[in-house]
């Protein structure tokens, strides 16, 4: 059977070294308890922690605008500048928020088109 090894890949991108001690170790232990399916793989836990944290950061305005365009005509719930949920009716959005223990700062229907905007917006 052949020998398994990892070959270094040349890159100009920065690399990061994290030691599994102290606060990092404690965070990884919490992650292992939360995600037992990958508890054995500390690297995957670290990456999932980073992805989960990024999901809770405010979405850049351009990204949110594009996301809302994708949900034209639907009801949306927004918190901290990010889309929590979108559905065809407000009741479904509220139900989702309750089921997931989430709170929204904004709940509104995304206009299907510019013609659907109220006249006071001056965009019609």
Short description:
The protein is an alpha+beta fold.
Task: Summarize the topology.
Blueprint: H1 22-34, H2 42-55, H3 61-70, E1 75-79, E2 82-87, H4 90-99, E3 106-109
Helix pairs in contact: 1-2
Number of domains: 2
Distance between the termini: 71 Å
Helix percentage range: 25-40%
* Radius of gyration (Å): 21 Å
- Low-pLDDT sequence parts: none
Task: Determine the structural class based on helices, strands and strand pairing.
Answer: alpha+beta
Beta strands, count: 3
Please state how the strands of the largest beta sheet are arranged side by side. 2-1-3
The number of distinct helices, counting runs of at least 4 residues, comes to 4
Order of SSEs, N→C? HHHEEHE
Arithmetic mean of pLDDT = 81
Shape summary: elongated
Strand content is: 5-15%
- Major beta sheet summary: 3 strands, antiparallel
Provide a descriptive summary of the structure in words.
There is one protein chain. The chain has 124 residues and is an alpha+beta fold. It has 2 domains: 22-55, no CATH class; 61-121, no CATH class. It is 38% helix and 12% strand. It has 4 helices and 3 strands, in the order αααββαβ. A 3-stranded antiparallel beta sheet has the order 2-1-3, with helices on both faces. A hairpin with a 2-residue loop joins strand 1 (75-79) and strand 2 (82-87). The chain is elongated. The mean pLDDT is 81.
């Amino acid at each position: 059977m052949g020998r398994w090894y990892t070959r270094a890949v040349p890159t100009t991108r920065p690399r990061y070294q994290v030691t599994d001690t102290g606060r990092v170790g404690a965070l990884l232990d919490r992650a292992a308890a939360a995600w037992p399916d990958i508890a054995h793989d500390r690297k995957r836990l670290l990456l999932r922690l980073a992805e989960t944290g990024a999901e809770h950061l405010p979405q850049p305005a351009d990204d949110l605008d594009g996301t809302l365009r994708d949900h034209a005509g639907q009801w949306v719930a927004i918190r901290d500048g990010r889309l929590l949920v979108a559905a065809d009716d407000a009741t479904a959005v509220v139900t989702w928020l309750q089921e997931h223990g989430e709170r929204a700062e904004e709940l509104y229907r995304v206009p299907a088109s510019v013609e659907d905007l109220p006249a006071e917006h001056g965009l019609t």
